[in-house]
Design a protein that fits this description.
Radius of gyration: 39 Å
CATH topology of the largest domain: Rossmann fold
CATH architecture of the largest domain: 3-Layer(aba) Sandwich
Shape: elongated
Strand order of the largest sheet: 10-11-9-12-13-14
Strand content: 15-25%
Number of domains: 3
Structural class: alpha/beta
Helix content: 25-40%
Number of strands: 18
Length: 501
């Protein structure tokens, strides 16, 4: 039975936005009183919340699929659809959120931090919102967009001030039970601890947390034992406490050899960029089980050599509690020093500069892609892709509205600069997208380039006649009528035809 999970993949589906409504208001003596279609509601977001009351990702292991509520459809009489309810997912403090490619999205290290992991879709506008002085009664509405869908990886890294590291059965679980109110499982066989345990230690006015990391063995950084799965829980600790077993009966083991192996595995573990390597952090050594006479003798024998290596050494017993008070004060001193240093570094941290989007940035880009059937011009950008998704292509008026929106942001001009000609294949969006046969609009500067060099078809092909042209046309028409009457008179005089009485 799974009781602890520190890494899980979650599949998220945010809510879809509701469609806008097409409706015309009808009243007595006013059968067509104007559009009154309401907007669709927005889809619900999926939000991750760092909650101190949550300690494991077990719930996501059991239910990895999470779907937020969809937005309601718009209705007549200006009634908007309901917004989808936000789905709030509580995760432990110290959870790292990664995308499908393994890139870190956010590190939830502070209680109450919220992160929108899946954004809900936008609701479509109803025809009442689309009405304008030029389009007084729209016969279409915008569709709602799909909410974000995909997978994220949640990885829990225990946040503690001090990490207890050492071989299996070195007494780490007994030590955390003696220092705090934590009650981990304690037994006389290796790998008793199968999950990290947290304990809160109170020493005078100082309070700090201690993490009992499952036992490490040689090759842990390469995947042996349980170390590779739980070394990540050491990353966030400000100090390390090496718990060395002075009463082990295993051949070839002694405190000095155990310390060398553990330090080698800690050095081989890669920490994230910007974090201090594990072996460069403050380290103390606890020689455990001195309540056993042979262990006390061994501790006294190896202590001078360990101190010569630069370590502060404490001889302790989790059974008799010998040396635990001195060890607790030493750990509290290291933690307070690290906290003061962290505050100073936070004050010197450079400010985050938010730069607005460039003025000449149209919010889209065009890529020319070669293929078997010629060049395809792909339009990528948040606005064009969203507008295409909101368009009902079964409605000609809605398609015309889409063409107006695309023309206003300068897509026609950009296509001309990219080398597109009339009839070229244009795809909006990634992948299959939506395919169009591009026809430049008359209001765009693209038409200038479609004609002969040096000509402007907007002027040359103007259908409006001048007064001089109308006068000349009138005179030509009158002259033609006079000539027709004269021709008839000549034929009558020649006897070609006569009037019947």
């Amino acid at each position: 039975m799974v009781t602890f999970v520190d890494q899980v993949q979650v599949h998220l589906q945010a809510g879809r936005g509701g469609n806008g409504c097409v409706s015309v208001k009808r009243e007595k003596f006013k059968p067509l009183a104007g559009p009154d279609g309401g907007n669709g509601g927005h889809g619900g977001d999926i939000v991750l919340l760092a909650d101190p009351q949550v300690t494991t990702l077990l719930d996501f292991h059991r239910r990895p699929h999470r779907n937020a509520e969809n937005g309601g459809f718009g209705m007549g009489d200006f009634r908007a659809g309901t917004n989808g309810e936000e789905m709030l997912l509580s995760v432990p403090i110290g959870t790292v959120v990664k995308d499908a490619l393994g890139e870190t999205l956010i590190d939830l290290t502070e209680p109450g931090t919220r992160f929108v992991a899946a954004k809900g879709g936008l609701g479509g506008l109803g025809n009442a919102a689309l009405a304008s002085t030029k389009r007084k009664a729209p016969g279409f509405a915008l569709l709602g967009t799909e909410g974000w869908s995909g997978s994220v990886t949640l990885e829990l890294k225990t946040i503690a001030d001090v990490a207890l590291v050492g071989y299996p059965s070195a007494g780490k679980s007994s030590l955390i039970a003696a220092l705090s109110a934590a009650r981990p499982k304690i037994a006389d066989y290796p790998f008793t601890t199968l999950q990290p345990n947290l304990g809160v230690v109170q020493v005078a006015d100082h309070r700090f947390t201690v993490a009992d990391v499952p036992g490490l063995i040689e090759g842990a950084s390469e995947g042996k034992g349980l170390g590779l799965d739980f070394l990540r829980h050491v990353e966030r600790c400000s100090a390390l406490l090496h718990v060395l077993d002075c009463a082990t009966l295993e051949p070839g083991r002694d405190p000095l050899t155990d310390l060398e192996v553990i330090r080698r595995e800690l050095a081989a573990y890669p920490v994230p960029e910007g974090q201090l390597p594990l072996l460069e952090r403050p380290q103390l050594i606890a020689l455990n089980k001195i309540d056993v006479p042979e262990a006390a003798e061994l501790a006294a024998f190896v202590r001078p050599e360990l101190e010569a290596m630069g370590f502060r050494v404490f001889e302790i017993s989790t059974v008799s509690h010998a040396g635990l008070r001195e060890l607790s004060f030493a750990l509290a001193e290291l933690v307070e020093t690290h906290r003061a240093q962290t505050v100073a570094e936070a004050e010197d941290r450079p400010r985050v500069v938010l730069r607005p989007r460039a003025v000449d940035d149209g919010g889209f880009r065009i890529l020319a892609e070669g293929g078997t059937y010629g060049t395809v011009y792909r339009v990528l950008g948040e606005k064009p892709e969203r507008w295409v998704e909101q368009t009902d292509f079964a409605n000609d008026e809605a398609v015309g509205y889409l063409a107006d929106r695309l023309q206003k942001i300068g897509i026609d001009d950009a296509l001309v600069k990219a080398g597109a000609t009339a009839g070229a294949t244009v795809v909006i969006g990634p992948g299959a997208g939506v395919v169009f046969d591009w026809e430049p609009t008359m209001t765009s500067a693209a038409e200038v380039q479609m004609g002969a060099r040096g000509s402007d078809q907007r002027v040359d092909q103007s259908g409006r006649r001048t007064s001089k042209e109308r006068r000349e046309e009138y005179h030509e028409r009158m002259d033609a009528k006079a000539e027709a009457r004269a021709e008839l008179d000549r034929e009558r005089k020649a006897g070609l035809w006569r009037e019947e009485s």
